[in-house]
Design brief:
This protein is α/β, with parallel strands linked by helices and about 325 residues long. It is built from 13 helices and 12 strands. Helix 5 packs across helix 7. It is globular and about 75 Å long. The structure holds (2R)-2,3-dihydroxypropanoic acid. The site of (2R)-2,3-dihydroxypropanoic acid (DGY) has 6 residues, from loops.
């Protein structure tokens, strides 16, 4: 029987590729860059499965370019706003993601951003490297206290709750919004479910952990930024378009809020003009889940899903499960 064929749109861990090669023919984009939409469509033609990244838009045209034999697009990410779920289900194509394995890494990175922004670490690092440090001084690089402050979490899913759990060591008060209340979490962490307005008004540190949906686009905009405390920090390691970046730049410049820590941006890799000139924002290039083990685990889930589907089994982490009933 002819071996199934899989395309991987960018180099991922060799272990994942070697594992997949035991079961199917595998081709990987050899260049360390994202494929253009035209290259993407060309490369996936005739494949039985594809491992995609969040930068690969998988819509009806892409699915049709792959062809009717294509059974699965396995996203190498937990987020899947790059997928058209309805178009895939209509075509009987299975879509999967990699939930669970990146919660610790992403939550830890959220904390890294929060701590770096609160204690002005990148600014201070640059100051030393630029040779400006002339000795200890009592009044420079004064930052924000974290202990016993209020941490606001928008979206208490796997990652949001992990971030909240890590706040225990700082003895923080936790408030959160979510479409669902989580009473056992509230009990365990003394957390309080609040409405969005209270979250904005009371958080000293507001961390966003929402999926990108039409309803969450610009969840933080001009009005919301003006409801936040002047001393508050906004942290975003979810998806860029959840924050109106133009309004955020204005709010940071005018010190409407004290600062921000951003892993994600509205038009990656482009930054809103003016953002990188500000000293009250920490900016890193969408690396929240970038640890060696997490990347391996993400690859293992994606590969395993593909192998299962080729063997006629349901994948472990299907995001359009209606397709399995077809
Ligand atoms: C995800 O998994 O959704 C991240 O944003 C990329 O690793």
């Amino acid at each position: 029987m002819k071996k199934k064929s899989v395309y991987i749109t960018r180099m991922i861990s060799q272990e994942t590729i070697d594992d997949l090669k035991k079961h199917c023919d595998v081709e990987v984009n050899p260049d360390d860059r994202a494929l253009s939409p035209a290259e993407f469509m060309e490369k996936i033609k005739g494949r039985d499965g594809v491992i995609t990244l969040i930068t690969d838009k998988v819509d009806a045209a892409v699915m049709d370019a792959a062809g009717p034999q294509c059974k699965i697009f396995a996203n190498y990410a937990v987020g899947f706003n790059n997928f058209d779920l309805a178009a895939a289900t209509k075509r009987g194509i299975i879509l999967t993601n990699t939930p669970g394995v990146l919660d610790d890494a992403t939550a830890t990175h959220t904390w890294a951003l929060l701590l770096a922004a609160a204690r002005r670490i990148p600014e201070a690092d640059k100051f030393v490297r630029d040779g400006k440090w002339k000795g200890w001084a009592p009044m420079f690089f004064l930052g924000l206290d974290i202990d016993r402050k209020t941490l606001g979490i928008a979206g208490l899913g796997r990652i949001g709750s992990n971030v909240a759990r890590k706040a225990k060591g700082f003895d923080m008060k936790i408030i959160y919004t979510d479409v669902r209340r989580n009473q056992s979490f509230e009990k365990e962490f003394g957390a309080t479910h609040v409405d969005k307005e209270t979250l904005l008004k009371e958080s000293d540190f507001l961390s966003l952990h929402l999926p990108l949906l039409p309803e969450t686009q610009h969840y933080i905009g001009k009005k919301e930024l003006r409801m936040m405390k002047k001393t508050a920090l906004l942290i975003n390691a979810s998806r860029g378009p959840i924050v109106d970046e133009k309004e955020l730049v204005k709010a940071l410049r005018e010190r409407i809020i004290a600062g921000a820590g951003l892993d994600v941006f509205e038009n990656e890799p482009q930054l809103e003009p003016g953002l990188k000139e500000l000293d009250n924002v920490v900016i890193v290039p969408h690396i929240a889940s970038a640890t060696i083990k997490t990347r391996l685990d993400m690859g293992a889930i994606a590969a395993n899903n593909i192998i299962k589907v080729f063997n006629g089994q349901p994948p472990d982490t299907c995001i359009n499960p209606e397709v399995l009933k077809k």
